[in-house]
Design a protein that fits this description.
By secondary structure, the protein is α/β, with parallel strands linked by helices. It has 2 domains: 6-44; 51-263, Uncharacterised protein PF01937, DUF89, domain 3 (Rossmann fold), CATH 3.40.50.10880. The chain is 49% helix and 12% strand. The protein contains 12 helices and 6 strands. It has a 6-stranded mixed sheet, sandwiched between helices. Strand 1, helix 8 (142-156) and strand 2 form a beta-alpha-beta unit. The longest helix is centred in the N-terminal third of the chain and has 16 residues, at 29-44. The radius of gyration is 18 Å and the shape is globular.
């Protein structure tokens, strides 16, 4: 994404190799990725190599916004349909793959997936009763799918919803710029986590983010990275993500490729 110069590639590989012996055995994959991408950025001088790809994903997803809203309005359970779309949007991930495919295919596969009804019912009841919700986003483009879910939640209950993005560019993860580009900031309050990790590493987060994390009635955590970093947390979290590797598949009990809604206390 940054250069075709094989000498630069070799410098990056060598630098990453030096990092490996220093990594603790309990470090999470997102923390490793954070260090690796910092090496790439520092050596290449390109601190946002996915900038164009992110803008393209935001604009492309927004072009499908009316279609997705219509599909929700025509469904028997609009909230469940919005959940399916939000989870399906997690396919827009350039860290796990080189490309994410056709947007129309992502939408149709999302709508045809079967959610775990026990976890979905718990989620529906939780957001209905909640007075505050912390929604931790993941990728650019995916933010449009998140906007759709927040709008549907607000129809059920005028909750205080805060949406969280990354502090600085990391892979194709969403930043404030992406949230503003798709008008998500006009729907809910948007804040930065205070960290550039491709997940939620609480020790790195801002005081504002930590306070909201600790006080929210419900937390929605998007993406496999957030599952990796928060799955052992005791809070009332619902994980929305596409299962992208065998390790996580074994851990969560879903097959690779599954669109998963997993409640921490289900």
């Amino acid at each position: 994404m940054t250069t075709d110069d094989e000498n630069v590639h070799r410098r990056v590989l060598n630098s990453v190799a030096f990092l490996i012996p220093e990594l603790a055995l309990n470090v999470t994959p997102p923390e490793i990725a954070q260090q690796v991408y910092r090496v790439v950025y520092e050596i290449t001088g390109d601190y946002d190599p996915y900038h164009h790809a992110k803008r393209q994903a935001d604009d492309l997803a927004m072009s499908f916004y009316p279609l997705m809203k219509d599909r929700i309005d025509d469904s028997e359970d609009p909230l469940q349909t919005a959940c399916k779309l939000a989870i399906g949007g997690n396919a827009i991930d350039l860290g796990a793959q080189a490309e994410y495919g056709e947007m129309n295919t992502i939408i149709e596969e999302s709508l045809s997936c079967a959610l775990n009804l026990k976890d979905y019912k718990l989620f529906k009841q939780s957001v209905t009763d909640a007075s505050s919700i912390l929604y931790i986003g993941d990728n650019a483009g995916e933010v449009v799918f998140d906007r759709i879910l927040t709008e549907q939640i607000l129809k059920i209950n005028s909750n205080n919803i805060v949406y969280v993005v990354r502090e600085k560019p990391i892979i194709n993860d969403a930043t404030i710029e992406d949230a503003v580009r798709v008008d998500l900031d006009k729907v809910v309050k948007v804040i930065s986590s205070g960290s550039d990790a491709p997940a939620t590493i609480l020790s790195q987060c801002s005081p504002e983010m930590k306070d909201m994390y600790g006080s929210a009635d419900v937390i929605i955590a998007k993406g496999q990275g957030n599952y990796e970093s928060l799955c052992n947390s005791p809070e009332n979290i619902f994980f929305f993500f596409k299962v992208k590797c065998p390790v996580i598949a074994r851990d969560c009990g879903y097959d690779v490729g599954t669109l998963a809604l997993i409640g921490n206390h289900a």
